[in-house]
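Task: complex structure prediction.
Instruction: return structure tokens for all chains below.
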Amino acid sequence: MKNFQYYNPVRVVFGKGTIRELKKLLRDKSKILFLYGGGSIKKNGVYDQVVEALKGKDFIEYSGIQANPDYEDCMNCVLLAEKENVDFILSVGGGSVLDAAKFIAAAIYYEGGEPWEILIGKGRIKKALPLGSVLTLPATGSEMNANSVISRREIGEKRAFSSPHVYPEFSILDPETTYSLSKRQVANGIVDAWVHVLEQYMTTSLDSPLQDRQAEAVLLTLLEEGPKAVLSNKDYEVQANIMWCSTNALNGLIGCGVDQDWATHGIGHELTALYGIDHARTLAVVLPGLLSLMRKQKEQKLLQYAERIWGISMGDTNVRIDEAIARTCLFFESLGVDTRYSDLGIDEDAPEKIAARIDGRNEVFGEGQNIRGPEIIKILKNLKD
Ligand code: NZQ
Ligand code: ZN
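Output:
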């Protein structure tokens, strides 16, 4: 196992009716920026619950944060928060609203030049405004991690940053808030959480049996509960399990002391930046090609995954690996998420375009730091070597 530090200060408040806990959680805040998205919270009653809990508090609202939150919107919020002397940001919605809150919190105190520098690895974050969240979409794990992903449509970029200063102080996870999700969003969330696990599990690390089994526990639970959630997302226990799975998929615990990959996400972000495809749907088309191309490097883990998740233990190594990849695709497709690049219906030269963009930034992905432009083209075209 590699050396590691694990720090996670997020207070998770989980369960039915927990939005009312906001009253206590926000007791010492004097001016709150209440941030939300395009209006789902007004239709499903979450907005009313939040406003009720905020009664007597001084707060302002900013709505309209888009899916794949946009830099310009965030910068408008920074101006508003400064003008209004806000001392806390409350995000209510999915990962996009929360990621926007994290970026705004960091940008307010950013002392360098343009806050975009934070997202291109040029800026150091020394301080951020405190923030908290009411999560309504289980998927990203943002509620219990220090990451944020921001898009800048004006220049066609989607970039991420991470800082311990932007951990939420608390995250309220009430599974009942997820009852209003569309089937598409439920399925996206399951696929996103699945791929978060694989980015940390499907590498070359072989000496981490506890982290492996924690990762496999998340996968097996998603495998059991996922199809039920897509069929109907009104069962409290199913939604509670899915919600806790997606938090655990990316709160840092299963990634302790192990190699991590993140190539699927790196390539997927380019597909969203260029073609506006849902985050999870990019992952579902990148992952199969990645696992297939990197099969030698990941062989032991792929075989372990084949056996422990899919019960495949017989046959030649390549046959077992192919079968595990095929079963993964079938699972995603059973949820309604396409897994073939051709299903995206985008430009034929997109793989070359994406490879050139990533190479142009000198970015290298993968636990072996060996995924560059040429490999990216093969991954997107699903070529074995
Ligand atoms: O905007 P509203 O009206 O709220 O609608 C949203 C949005 O249209 C809707 N929604 C959310 N909760 C709902 C609901 N609709 C009905 N009922 C509810 N309870 O769902 C749509 C998608 O929401 P969004 O927040 O964009 O989805 P998600 O949580 O999947 O977040 C995606 C963003 O997170 C980033 C992605 O790249 C993408 O930008 N990620 C963030 C990560 C992190 N911070 O750690 C890791 C991930 O890998 C990911 O990259
Ligand atoms: Zn993701």
